[in-house]
Each structure stands twice: as C-alpha cells, then as structure tokens.
Give the backbone structure.
Amino acid sequence: MTTDTRFRNFLLMVLVVTMSLQATATRYQDGDFIFDCNWSWGQLTATLLRYTGSQTEVDIPDTVEYDGNSYPVIYIGDEFSCPFADNDIIEVVRLPRTAQSIGIEAFSHCSRLHTVSLGRNLRQVGAYAFHQCTQLQSVRVYDLLTDIGDYAFAGCTALRNLTLGHAVSSLGQGMLDGCSLQSLTLLNPTPATCHGHLSSDNAFYMRCQLVLRLGTVADYQAAGGEWLRFRDIVERAEPGDINADNNIDVTDINILINMMLSRTQPDIGRADIDHNGFLDITDVNALINLMLGK
C-alpha cells in the first residue's frame, strides 16, 4: 500500500468519525412536554419546545428519558419555539435545576401566570421572555443568572418587587418597560451594563426605589448612565446578612442561634428571614438555604 493510499484511508477514517460525532436531534413527546433531544460531540441536551398540558401548576422535568439515554433539560425554548407563549391556563411554573437558558418569548402573554421559580443554574433570560405576563407577581432569581434580554419583563404590570442576584451583569433595553415596580434590588456590587433604558417611562425612575448592597452606591453612581436616573437609592444588607458584612456565612448562623437563645430577643431585623415577627428553627433553615444558594 502506497503512502498516498494510506493517507487517503486515514482521511476517510477521520471523516467517518467526524460525521458520526455531528449533532443529531430527535423530537420526542414526554407527557405534556415536547422536546428536542440533541446529541452533539458526545453531549446530551434537551430543549423544551412546547407544553401541551392544561395544569395550572407546572414543574418542568430535569431530564428526558429517550432511547436508553437521559437528556438534561438545558434550554426552555429557542429562537424558533416559544413553549408557553399565549398560554391562558398556567399560574405557577418551576424550572428544573438543569435549565440554563430561557428562550425568546418563552412565556410571553401568559395571562394568568403569577409565580415563577427560574431554577438555580439559569444563566440567561431571553428577550421578551415574560413580555405582557400581566399577573406576574413573584419571580425567584438564583445567583448564576448573568444576562436578561430586551423587554424580558416588559408589560408585567403586577410585578412590584424584583431582586437580581450577585452575578447579573447585563440588562436589556426596556427590560422593565410598562412595569409598576416599586423596588429593584441589585445584589451584584459591580454595576450591570444596561443596553438602553430599563424603561421608556420617566415616571418609573421616580417611583421605583433602587436597593443596593451596603457600600456600593458610590460604585453605581460612578458608573453613571442608567443608574443616575433613579431618584430614590438606598443601601441595605441582604436578608440573612445579620452582621452586615456583605456575606452570608456561618457567623450569621451563630448570631441567629444566639439571638434565638436570648430570652429578650433584641431587634431581630435581618435575622427574621421568614418575616413572622419572631425567631425560630424556620429562620435557621432559611438562612442555611441562603448560604447554600438554594
């Protein structure tokens, strides 16, 4: 066998292996959910394309079992699919811990949706993701979220308070357009980049209080731009940051336990995690969950 022949055979083998590793996608329905199950370069992922059920509370599954493989649900919609758009039934939705991205218009115009838990590993909320969800009141955001797209919460007229975690670094244009937000809390000590005005309504900046972590107001004011438009800016320690050192750690748990053991229970302030007016084991559990990012 000549050198040229061996070289051609080698290239053919490489081509065959490469083709076998190329992405493949299979559409699969699991109960009320339609997924794209993808296999690309040895990595398994699932994209939720559509929800077909009629439940008011929806828990999106962590994984899809298909053809002997377990596909983690990474994407909630994509550029071509809006899995919950225009749904007039769902009221509560909980994303799986595996989800990393919410696609464009994934939940837009869900007229009865009022509560959303975004999932602890979510990194990105796409443009118009919750556009015109007029009953949306509660959005739980975890600490890995970094990017929120244009008009993501625009038209969410029932949303009064929004807290964004320590990693949020990019906020889209019109993200809060048409909202009646009373407070926007930002836990990241580094000001996020705003890609345009958060709202086109000047009254929004007069009405909405900007709540920042202790010691960060100067950094936001120095960043200028959007942050200078807010008229009411305050600094606060996070709930659970009992000693106000900008960290939630074992020290805070020790302080909480000592406060619980005190007969007088002095000013409980940030230690009353569940806001029921007294300190108990529920506050300890809640504080541990905050420390663990749950």
